Amino acid sequence: MTLTLRYMKVPDIKQVSAIDHLSFEPPWPTDSYNFEINQSTVSHMVVLEERQTQTNGASKPEPIRLWDRINRIFNPEPPIPSNRIVGYGGLWKIADEAHVSTIATHPSSRGNGYGEILLAGMFGKALLLGAEYIVLEVRVSNHVAQGLYNKYGFTRHGVKENYYRSDREDAYDMRVMFSTDVVTQYHTLYNDLKIKRPFTDDYTEVPHPRRGIG
Per-residue DSSP letters for 37-69? Predict the structure, then answer.
């Protein structure tokens, strides 16, 4: 199994929307993801993909004919990929601000550090895009997420009352300025994360597939 952080594509929307429905109330409309990918001039959508491989012949019985056995040796069947989106996020870059618009992992994949990979990728993308600071909103009751954000230097800058439409819960406005110390700490955290939870990063330093920037 391998993990790949990459830009979100239109074929990913079905899986992303499914995670969204399991994570948020109300979820984003499906058309919103199409807009973010195909039309937005400020959005950098990301997914974390889990890839598993198996061979076509893994569950087949051993061929009986000698020629079949020889042919399988010299012409092995290619692996069959089994790819699954385990998390996603959205980053907007507007003027000097980078804004984490959304972030979630599939409920069955939580506790594996996938949320941190997504956050680290968007944090790095914000730096590459030249933002001066990064901001996000989080439920006041979501202490687990707040702990992760604190780890990356986010602090509370206010409360947005009745922010969540489903239950009117307040949200903390959390943000961090990209000071030299914060950037240094980020690179340390990012490198440690890649050792702890190896993944391929095809997002942070990769240009936008449509706009060709960042």
Answer: HHT-SSEEEEEEEEEEEEETTTTSPPP-SHHHH
